[in-house]
């Protein structure tokens, strides 16, 4: 077993990684987002990657997801915890809430979703009914519980193209569709992990109410909703790091047993 942690705006490094080594992994799909930091935590082999690059220079639509996931496979990673900062759409998904997504609706466009183009004469359909690995998700939820963290154990993650945030009308539509949270990176990451047969689970932290979703909290009834504040998002991301790393380390010790 080898675990990868994919960080983004949240979890920019794994402080407890022992004997960390930075490795460049070449792939047939071009450059990954960053060097891969490999090491051990409590004896378990762990790989860390930041999907946005070390200085957060790669926007969600520009991420080379195929290179990132293929490189993890080359590193013999078997399990992936993907950490994400998201917006909250439905009532329970309030800022600073940890959420473990169990479903996805993909609103992205123009992102390459598959490795199929390298397989000769064979279309590799994957079952994606449950886009996240059930066993790893269970381990993650147990870790959150053991840490005493108040979290949402189910959510549909709507993946938007970005980098702009959504309009109020788009969020209303996503809510009608059944989305609970909104982020920009779970696809095609989750689908590519499934094609490469790596167990993939999501750990999200809500860092803002999605556009218009915080209406009743931020404005009076009948008044326009507050706009999303980038400063508040930045602040919550800073505060969120110390929350999100605890269940990650707890998962690592659970997997090591
Ligand atoms: N929308 C999309 N992605 C996000 C948001 C949002 O409101 N907040 C954090 N990531």
What features would you describe in this structure?
The protein is α/β, with parallel strands linked by helices. It has one domain: Nucleoside phosphorylase domain (Rossmann fold). Helix content is 29%, strand content 23%. It is built from 6 helices and 11 strands. Strands 1, 2, 3, 4, 5, 6, 7, 8, 9, 10 and 11 form an 11-stranded mixed beta sheet that branches. The protein starts with a strand and ends with a helix. The site of hypoxanthine has 13 residues, from strand 5, strand 10 and strand 11. Hypoxanthine binds next to strand 5, strand 10 and strand 11.
In a few lines, what is going on in this structure?
With 257 residues, the protein is an alpha/beta fold.
């Amino acid at each position: 077993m080898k675990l990868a942690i994919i960080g983004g705006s949240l979890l920019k490094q794994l402080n407890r990684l022992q004997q960390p080594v930075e490795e460049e992994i070449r792939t047939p799909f071009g450059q990954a987002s960053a060097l891969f930091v490999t090491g051990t935590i409590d004896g378990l082999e762990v790989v860390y990657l930041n999907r946005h690059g070390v200085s957060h220079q790669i926007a969600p639509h520009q991420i080379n997801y195929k290179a990132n996931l293929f490189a993890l496979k080359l590193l013999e990673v078997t399990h992936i915890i993907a950490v994400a900062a998201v917006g909250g759409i439905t009532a329970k998904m309030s800022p600073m809430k940890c959420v473990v997504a169990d479903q996805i609706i993909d609103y992205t466009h123009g992102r390459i979703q598959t490795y199929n183009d390298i397989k000769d004469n064979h279309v590799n359909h994957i079952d994606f009914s449950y886009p996240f690995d059930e066993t790893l998700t269970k381990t993650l939820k147990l870790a959150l519980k053991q840490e005493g963290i108040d979290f949402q154990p189910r959510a549909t993650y709507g993946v938007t193209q970005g980098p702009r945030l959504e309009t109020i009308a788009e969020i209303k539509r996503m809510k009608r569709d059944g989305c609970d949270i909104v982020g920009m990176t779970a696809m095609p990451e989750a689908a590519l992990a499934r094609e490469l047969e790596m167990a993939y689970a999501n750990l999200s932290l809500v860092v803002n109410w999605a556009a218009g979703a915080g209406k009743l909290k931020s404005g009076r009834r009948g008044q326009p909703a507050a706009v999303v504040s980038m400063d508040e998002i930045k602040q919550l991301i800073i505060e969120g790091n110390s929350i999100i790393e605890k269940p990650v380390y707890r998962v690592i010790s659970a997997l090591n047993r």
